[in-house]
Amino acid sequence: MNIDLALVLTVLTLFTGAVVALDRFWLRKRWEESGARPGKTVATVVDYSRSFFPVLLFVLVIRSFVFEPFRIPSGSMRPTLLEGDYIFVTKYAYGLRLPVTNTKILETGSPERGDVVVFRLPSDPSVNYIKRVVGLPGDTIAYRDDVLFVNGERVEKRRAGTDPEWLQAAYIERLGDREHRILLSDRVSLEGEWKVPEGEYFMMGDNRDNSQDSRVIGTVPEENLVGKAVRIWMHMDGLEWPDWSRIGAKIE
């Protein structure tokens, strides 16, 4: 069962905020004038609301408008991101949105080709995916024989050794003036040509032959974007010791 943390956090913040406001502007004055004492349950709810409301409000604002942590669950973005990486995602990179309703209230920017982005799966918005933006609105994207084409132009890549764990061929791919590493295997790739609709983006995983991306799930509407992945703040896979060398690494 997927729990909507944004909804839970918003409801708790609104409830405790309402209790604090009710106590401040009505209950306290009523009790003072009547000389009555609040019941134990009411007093407990008020005390807890006073304590938790500032914390909940702070967390809600930070999580909704500044950054949100995510854990990488699979190898679809290897070698850029590994299973067990914990990352920060900037929520303000592509516009400020209200929690729960996802209504944009302020335009702050748009995805650029090469950005690593967390987004809600179009077919099931309760599921978050993370991929790299390769196609912008209006682009034509093609993938043939392990080669990416953007608007008919071949995307440059050069060999960069072999991934030591998965024994896949590693390459450095160049999207515009930005470079990142990708992995290719001997498996048959998902090939084809796609036209990116206006207001949508074409996403691909860096582990090209082991990624369920826009070649399968389709293009991603702008309103499904969650934010831009910027930093790794922890790496811990299972019961292993944290990989300290990955902490603080910038996501390219």
Tell me what the structure shows.
The chain is of the alpha+beta class and 252 residues long. Helices cover 24% and strands 35% of the residues. It has two domains: 5-66; 72-246, Umud Fragment, subunit A (Ribbon), CATH 2.10.109. The strands form four sheets. It has a seven-stranded antiparallel sheet with strand order 1-2-16-5-6-14-15. Helix 1 runs antiparallel to helix 2 (40-66). It is elongated and about 80 Å long.
Helix-strand layout with pairing:
Blueprint: H1 5-34, H2 40-66, E1 67-71, E2 85-90, E3 96-97, E4 104-106, E5 116-121, E6 124-135, E7 140-144, E8 147-150, E9 153-154, E10 157-162, E11 169-175, E12 178-184, E13 192-195, E14 200-204, H3 214-217, E15 220-221, E16 225-235
Antiparallel strand pairs: 1-2, 2-16, 3-4, 5-6, 5-16, 6-14, 7-8, 7-13, 8-9, 10-11, 11-12, 14-15
Helix pairs in contact: 1-2
- Specify the biggest β-sheet: 7 strands, antiparallel
- Oligomer state equals single chain
**How many helices does DSSP assign?**
3
CATH architecture of the largest domain: Ribbon
CATH superfamily of the largest domain: Umud Fragment, subunit A
How many domain regions?
2
**Topology as H/E string?**
HHEEEEEEEEEEEEEEHEE
Could you please say which CATH topology of the largest domain applies here?
Umud Fragment, subunit A
> What's the number of extended β-strand segments?
16
